[in-house]
């Protein structure tokens, strides 16, 4: 619980709010394209172009924001990622909860902004002919590949990670955003990705007591970045990005 006393922690929470607000604003703005008109063939072509535009908007937005905010909060910008990192004992339960609340508030604020300037009346209509079970499987698999990508490319134990981690994550988001993001499927996919990577593909050697300490107090490598409120304001926040 000591992280709640540091400015770095609250700056990280604020970064999640701002990052999610910008991410959802850009994504929703891309979704609210012009209505397709003309022949059925032209409408089909415009629909494909619209889907590509939306996927690229989400991918480039998350890649840019991850590069901009990664050193402040880790740039989770997705409740499923925060939950996945909690399950893999990389962040505390308190940080996960505050991040998710900030992300939700940022998404609501962005939605309100887009709703304020958009004249469309059916922006929330979901895809037809998809059952709840099918939707769950789509969301589960799409979020599994996203969270698996995030945990793998930001693993500080790896020395073989080259290139841009934010770009890899951005492309992963672009791939997953051909399907919309909901709740139960993505959350289960995020947990499954953390369990698969952390306990099966590349297990950590932490004991149960060590994992419990991380969940309650955060990882040890954040202790050097802790900045107690009232004792200065120059310390950077913790980052999940690997150091090279």
UniProtKB/TrEMBL annotation:
Membrane topology: Multi-pass membrane protein
Membrane-spanning parts: 12-33, 92-114, 135-154, 180-202
Organism: Larimichthys crocea
Pfam families (alphabetical): MIP
Signal peptide feature range: none
GO biological process, one term: renal water transport
Name this protein carries in UniProt: Aquaporin-1
Major subcellular site: membrane
Family, per entry: Belongs to the MIP/aquaporin (TC 1.A.8) family.
GO cellular component, one term: membrane
Xref: Gene3D superfamilies: Glycerol uptake facilitator protein
Subcellular location(s) per record: Membrane
Database matches in InterPro entries: Aquaporin-like, Aquaporin_transptr, MIP, MIP_CS
One of the record's GO molecular function terms: ammonium channel activity
Keyword match Zinc: no
Keywords annotated in UniProt: Membrane, Transmembrane, Transmembrane helix, Transport
């Amino acid at each position: 619980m000591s992280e709640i006393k540091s400015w770095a922690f609250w700056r990280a929470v604020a970064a999640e709010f701002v990052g999610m607000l910008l991410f959802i604003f850009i994504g929703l703005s891309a979704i609210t394209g012009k209505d397709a008109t003309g022949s059925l063939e032209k409408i089909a072509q415009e629909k494909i172009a619209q889907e590509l535009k939306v996927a690229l908007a989400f991918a480039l937005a998350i890649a840019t924001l991850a590069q901009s905010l990664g050193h402040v909060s880790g740039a989770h910008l997705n409740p499923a990622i925060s939950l996945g990192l909690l399950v893999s004992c990389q962040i505390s339960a308190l940080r996960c909860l505050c991040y998710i609340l900030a992300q939700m508030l940022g998404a609501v604020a962005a939605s309100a902004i887009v709703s304020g300037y958009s004249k469309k009346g059916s922006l929330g209509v979901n895809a037809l002919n998809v059952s709840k079970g099918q939707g769950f499987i789509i969301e589960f698999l799409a979020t599994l590949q996203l969270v698996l990508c995030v945990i793998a490319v930001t693993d500080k134990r790896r020395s073989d990670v080259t290139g841009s981690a934010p770009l890899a994550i951005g492309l992963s988001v672009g791939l997953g955003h051909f399907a919309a993001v909901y709740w139960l499927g993505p959350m289960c996919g995020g947990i499954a990705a953390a369990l698969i990577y952390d306990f099966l593909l590349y297990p950590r050697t932490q004991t149960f007591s060590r994992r419990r300490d991380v969940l309650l107090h955060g990882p040890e490598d954040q202790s050097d970045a802790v900045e107690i409120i009232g004792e200065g304001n120059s310390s950077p926040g913790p980052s999940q990005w690997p150091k090279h």
